[in-house]
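Z., the sequence and structure:
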Amino acid sequence: MQTLQLTFNCTATSDLNLGGWNAGSNIRGALGQRLRRMTCEERTRTAAPTADHVLHCPACRILAQETEETKGNVYRAYALIPPTAPQTRQLQTGDPFQVGLRLFGAGQEFLPHFVVALGEIGQQGVGIGRGTFQLDSITAENPLTLAREALMSAGERYVSLPETFINPMDVEGAAQQLLRRMQANNQTHLQVRFQTLTRLIAAKKLVKTPDFGVLAGRLFDRIEALHKQWGNGWPDVPVKDLRQLADQVRLLSWDGRWQEARSGSRRTGRKNPISGLVGTAIYQSNHWNELLPWLVWGQVTQVGKDVVKGNGIYQIML
């Protein structure tokens, strides 16, 4: 499954507070409202939309609006990469910051909608106090190969079609490079640093320590669903065997915490929890040959609940 990763380089045009751990949630909420206003003719409805409406409405497709037929089984074709701390807190006028976006498979067709919507929410205001910003430039990036490509330069408003993507061969190459380094050091452990809130659920319960079996299980579920809904089908992989290997991975140490956070919805008027794990876990296994490629995939897809709000970003470290 091909993935397009974008970085939107922005500048605050007034004092701007994106809300700390809620930065991704605030940006995603503003984007959702703007996308609906831009394209959805039934945005004021209260009932679930029809499948025919979702098929022809860009906003409902982007936001993966559920119908009665698809309820509970829809995965969105994008994930946000929120600005990093301390940029998620108070920005002064003139301060630069970045917002990242990943579009999976066929979801890349939504690129123009996100570009327009992000520029417009910057003018209208976002976050605590509705601070404003301007979109300066856009780059496409591959964090696995470090390739970068300018899609829109400062002072321009024309966006080029991207040629830089994250492909399965890049994931495999990154995994093999990590494995060679581990083998050279006779190393059977690695670190996973959870950079944004990672919200894992098993048996309908929150998991407040990063058990690898649960992490891998949610990761397999997510990759499978993204391939089926937005890619070219699920590859022939022995998922059952992988789950068994993942359950054998030991958590050697956990230097992290559970961070509370709640996300407000202007559409429903409710605040929903987006709390999750942040920190560094060390895992030990003799089966990284089989598991590491999928862990690298997770760096691309993100994992757990609320990835569209910037949750579930992690980095593998040796």
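Helices lie at 23-39, 51-56, 58-62, 111-124, 168-184, 212-230, 239-247, 288-301. Residues 4 and 36 are 23 Å apart (CA to CA).

Let me know what you think.
H.
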